[in-house]
Amino acid sequence: MQRMMIVVGTAIARSTQGRRARSVVAGCLAAGLAAFSWIAAAAPAAAADPAVVFMAQVGRELMAAARTRSPGVMANVIQRHADVRVIGNYSLGAYRAKLAESDRQAYYSGMIRFISRYAAGEAPKYPVARVEWENQSVRGGNGLMVDSRVTLADGTTYDVRWLLAKYGSTYKVRDAMVLGFWMTPFLKKLFEDYIAQNGGNPRALMAALNR
Question: Where are the alpha helices (DSSP H) in the chain?
Answer without folding.
Answer: 2-13, 16-25, 50-68, 71-81, 84-91, 101-122, 183-196, 202-209
